[in-house]
Every structure is written in structure tokens, then in C-alpha cells.
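User: Hi! I'm working on a homework problem where we have to compare a predicted structure to a textbook description. Could you give me the structure for the chain below?
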Amino acid sequence: MTRRLGRRGLLHAAPLAGVSALLAGCGFQPVYMRTASHQAGPAQRELEQVQVRLIGGRPGQQLRQALQENFNSDSGAPAAYDLQVNFSISGEAISIEQTSIATRVRLRGFASWTLFPHDGPQNAITSGSANAVDGFDIYNSQYFAADLGVEAGQSRLATEIAQQITTQLAIYFRQKADKQAG
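Assistant: Happy to help. Predicted C-alpha cells:
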């Protein structure tokens, strides 16, 4: 069954085609773009060589695990970089009832990271930071539900911050490759 674009569909498709043409004309390329031989691009090859140092606490372990998954650290590539991450989570009670009981908690996660060469002097190559906000509800007289909410919120923060760090490093590696090529 074929579907024809009506007048309205063409109006929506035209700007997208125009934006795509403009981006292609200015040299826009995806960060994770593969090479002409369909091999992993420079950003992905470099990310595979990043070894994530230990991060303290359970949320830190979750962040480290998420980073390793994003970097594809088990690819067998030798380590060329060490990533040091400082990660913290703070919480604040919001949505407070008249009885002074909080019914919602807002979690704020913050990570600062530094990339070092794996061997040699420990001079920082690049650094950055990432942050995210999440929350969970507190149900009256359900203590274990609150614990599960905290754990789930911390896990979501770790995943989001890992994604931000991965994107920042991929952009760095892509720009580095472009400078070396050009």
C-alpha cells in the first residue's frame, strides 16, 4: 500500500529537505560517522580506548558501568586514555504538605571529568562537566518504595550523565581527528 503526501505533508517535508541540504553544504557530519570503508569512525575508535577509573559509591559504580557500555570498552582495544570522574548527587524535598511531610524529592547529579593519557605524564588532555536533574515521589508509609525511588533516580542520573560525558568526549575526538586530517 502506498501513501501519497498531501499538500500538508509536502509543507512539512520541504523545510526538512532544505535544512538537510544546508547542513550537508556546510560540512556537517555526524559525530559517530563511519569511514568510507564502513569501519568505526575516529570518535568511536578513540572512545574504545578510554579506560574509566573507579568512581566511589553505588551511583558512581552505575555511572562507570554506563560509561564503559557507551565507550564499548570491552572491544579489546588497548587503553590509550584514562578518564577520571568525580560524581555527586544531592537531594532536596519539594512538594511539602501542610503537615511538613515531603511528597517529592528532586535529585541533582553533577560530574566533573578529566581525560588523561594512559601512559606517561598525567597532564590533562581535556576536561568537562555534566549535570542532570531527576526526581521521585514519596508515598506515605511505604519506606521500601522510597528506597526504590532513590535507587531508580540515581540510576537514571548516572545514565544521563554518562550520555553527556560520552557525547562531549566524542565531539572532542571528532574535532581532534578533523584537525589532524586538515
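For your comparison, note the following. Residues 5-10 have pLDDT under 50 and may be disordered. The beta strands are 50-52, 81-96, 102-117, 126-137. Good luck with the assignment!
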